[in-house]
Amino acid sequence: MKKEMIDTTKNGIKYFYYPPWEKNMQVGLGFSSRCGGVSEDPYDELNLGYKWGDKHAAVAENRRRFLALWDKEEQDLVCGEQVHGTKITLVREKKAGALIPATDGLITTEPDIVLGAFSADCLLIYLWDPDARAIGLVHAGWRGTLGGILYYAVEAMQQRLGACPGRIQALFAPCIGSCCYEIGRDVMALAAGSYWGDKAVFYPSRKKGHAFLDLQKTNQNILVSAGMQPGNIGAGSLCTHCNPRLFYSYRRAAGQATGSHMGIIFLSER
Ligand SMILES: [Zn+2]
């Protein structure tokens, strides 16, 4: 079976999940599409991010509907500020409305804390070690990717939560594909100067000084360098930029307002 999140529709909301992780009821996870909420153009419909100027009440209602699919509420949610950095934070307790500063990766072993992250092209990565009962959720655009954030996430799960890299499983949410992710000299220069640069997967572009970056393959390489098994990594095949009916895309919006997807993961109380 292909290891990839699949879509389903519940209570009018289309979202992505992964049945093999949920079947033993140890962990719940989801990634929203844009379909099924109350936001209006250009945030239509299921915008789950407050920062783009959508009506607060609409986002709150969308979050309520999305989290209710797992019987969760906004006060269960802990999110990072997401600054395209590489910091991983260990979450030990629920703080209603918490937005942990300067953090793009969250890890925990606490049941019923819902780790949340947002994206509109960037890659969200779900991590789980079933034996250590440890989970993680990481946000990675090109900057975090080339900074090695996934290496640090696996390392933090190992050192702080007793996880074993060889046992950790990873899932990638839909993100911008290499078909659409053309980058320029700034990203190429960062890759060339980065310790993780040799893990980066680029494809040639006809535009001088440009290339297409494969976020998923690059992050797969970094996970393997952190000790993970390639067979434990489930990448996706849907491009957020290519599918405007299903997904928001920051790049497609080209500087105009758009919405955000949310990814969540939590451990169930045993
Ligand atoms: Zn594409």
Q: Topology of this structure?
A:
Elements (H helix, E strand, L loop, with lengths): L5 E5 L2 E5 L1 H4 L4 E6 L23 H13 L8 E4 L7 E3 L8 E2 L4 E4 L5 E6 L3 E7 L4 E7 L1 H5 L2 H13 L7 E4 L9 E2 L1 H9 L8 E3 L6 E3 L1 H11 L7 E2 L15 H4 L7 E7 L3
The structure holds zinc ion.
List keywords for this structure.
single chain, about 270 residues, alpha+beta, seven-stranded mixed β-sheet, globular, binds zinc ion
Distance between the termini: 27 Å
Question: Major sheet: order of its strands?
Answer: 1-2-3-16-8-4-6
Instruction: Count the E strands.
Output: 16
Largest sheet: 7 strands, mixed
Quickly count the helices. 7
What is the highest CATH level, the class? Alpha Beta
Report the uncertain regions: none
Give me the CATH architecture, please. 4-Layer Sandwich
Cα Rg? 17 Å
What's the rounded overall pLDDT mean?
Answer: 95
| Oligomeric composition of the shown chains | single chain
Tally the structural domains. 1
Query: In terms of structural class, how would the helical and strand content be classed?
Result: alpha+beta
CATH superfamily: CNF1/YfiH-like putative cysteine hydrolases
Order of helices and strands: EEHEHEEEEEEEHHEEHEEHEHE
Global morphology: globular
